[in-house]
Amino acid sequence: MGAQVGKLKVWIMTDLEGVAGVFSFEGHASSKGRWYDLSRRLLTQEVNAAIEGALEVGGSDVLVVDGHGEGGINAEELNPEARLLSGRPLLLPWGLEKGFDAAFIIGQHAMAGVEKAHLSHTESHVSVQNVWINGKKVGELGMIAAIAGYFGVPLVLATGDRAACIEALSIVPGIETAAVKEGLSHGAAVSISPARSRSLIKEKARAALLKKDEIKPYKVRPPVELTVEYTEAYKASAEHLASKPWAEKVDARTVRIRDEDLLEAFGKWF
Fold this sequence. Notes:
Elements: E1 8-14, H1 25-29, H2 36-56, E2 59-65, E3 82-85, E4 102-108, E5 128-133, E6 136-138, H3 140-150, E7 155-161, H4 162-171, E8 176-183, E9 189-191, H5 194-210, E10 224-230, H6 235-242, E11 247-251, E12 254-259, H7 262-269
Parallel strand pairs: 1-2, 1-4, 2-3, 4-7, 7-8
Antiparallel strand pairs: 5-6, 5-10, 8-9, 10-12, 11-12
Helix pairs in contact: 2-5
């Protein structure tokens, strides 16, 4: 089994678009898609690989968060050593709290607008254009890293397409990454096999926990300024949010929220 790092609590956020063998929103990532059940199995097996790697080096309490919008984890196939947080609404802070030793993100995609990023979007591929925290444009990786960092938990592993892995490294220096596919365009990618992706993820999960003390939590310093730009089709959502007493209208599609507390700022948006 090799080196261990003691008993560890590990928190795993999951998504679906960054999984090996998942290629489209409509066919793979939507519950109406013809390959949705296959995608759920592929994601669950990648998560299991991360759990196995964690358990081999001392992971003893693993919480998996089903982060894909319509649900992506097959509960029956999930490693029985893990607990599962699923259902909607999935309220902040997504089961996170002080006391977790490390965070993983499995199956992640890059933020909206990144070149050759496969199935990229930020929070919603239909309603949200961009998000900034304190003037820095972020995607879901940045948001998750920031909320983990709020509790002092380092994000130590991210898996997904190559663009997502590059994004993760730009946010958290030293993070372990597993690129399981590479986008040729927004809708097409070259993927490694699911079996190879699981082997890679297991290896990277082990490595991530063994070096967790070298990786700093991603901290957003207060005051927090959260800016959300909606798509043209969702101007009404911007107008609704801007009507709240704690929100500021920037333009017809963009709203800004200011707060001393990161979690409170995100709570006002979500």
